[in-house]
Amino acid sequence: MKIEPLKLGEITAKLPVIQGGMGVGISLGGLAGAVAKEGGIGIISAAQIGYREPDFDRDPKAANLRAITTEYEKARKISPDGVIGFNLMVAMKFYEDYVREVIKAGADLIISGAGLPMDLPRIAKKAETEYKRDRKVLLAPIVSTEKSARVILRYWDRKYQRIPDLLVIEGPLAGGHLGFTKDQLEHFGKDSYEEEIRNILEAVREFEEKYGRKIPVALAGGIEGKEQVKRAFELGADAVQVATRFVTTEECDADIRYKEAYIKAEKGDIIIVKSPVGMPGRAIRNAFMERVIKEGKIPHSPCHQCLHSCNPKEIPYCITDALINAAKGETEQALLFCGAYAYKAKRIETVKEVIASLLPEPV
């Protein structure tokens, strides 16, 4: 099977491989730049991206805004001509400010999930005008069901007279926060989710016909080898988005102890957890998760203003604290988000090796 480059508007990535955004601090400029250099699309996670800034505890928003430019410039230095973007969660506080900042920094692409980015076109257009961008930023919503796909496609069509530059379908085997209820996670086995993918693609085709142009689609969640990549393209995807496989690379921005936690994990260690903000997520069982189960509530630092739906007085633990500990390698005091197949990692690889292991045939 011949693998074709991924064309997104005026931009073309040599390889149809998107590195998924992973926060906090897992996919920053180092990893994104390395993936872009190899011909894929490198994605920086903006989630609490400024956690290493000296004023993060005092003013997390200012720290995050500053770090967006720092990490983008780091990635761009590694890959001057590659495709580099950001993952921005709709659930983030100050979402609009972060969208504006990544556009100001020069990002090629914004991938946005953890909620539907209903008004992303409005925010982007305003920022492009203000910062006099000579090329529009590409906009890519993440969806997990046919219903969510139709909602975003219809809304963007009706209100903004536009369609996505890319649509990311994230399945139930993905890592981190998942766009499914607990019941849906139990329902969507391999065959039933493939049917959902077909339904989403049918919705996409309706809007392709209306606008007379293609909407490229990337399939994400559980993509860990050639077999899954081949199946994704058979189903009609134009690209794959891969996150977990890039964690155990030399170029990944996380601490080596975080990477080693993946390598040490067994299949039974990968569990579905409930995040402090009520969303299901996939993570590695460790001492921290056992403590959460046993104690119910863990003391945390002052609020770092990460998510809209978080009430610091009611949460069992602070997700920012837990994810920062993960990035720093304090793995027994951390929430270790991962994909369903994280336990298959057996060694530290390079980004180049991971990409080669995914593609059935070179371009």
UniProtKB/TrEMBL annotation:
GO molecular function, one term: dioxygenase activity
Superkingdom of this protein's organism: Bacteria
Statement: the UniProt record of this protein carries the keyword Transmembrane: no
Pfam families attached to this UniProt entry: NMO
Gene3D superfamilies named among the record's database cross-references: Aldolase class I
The entry's keywords: Dioxygenase, Flavoprotein, FMN, Oxidoreductase
Alphabetical list of InterPro entries matching this protein: Aldolase_TIM, NMO
Task of the protein: Nitronate monooxygenase that uses molecular oxygen to catalyze the oxidative denitrification of alkyl nitronates. Acts on propionate 3-nitronate (P3N), the presumed physiological substrate. Probably functions in the detoxification of P3N, a metabolic poison produced by plants and fungi as a defense mechanism.
Protein name from the UniProt record: Probable nitronate monooxygenase
Organism (species): Claveliimonas bilis
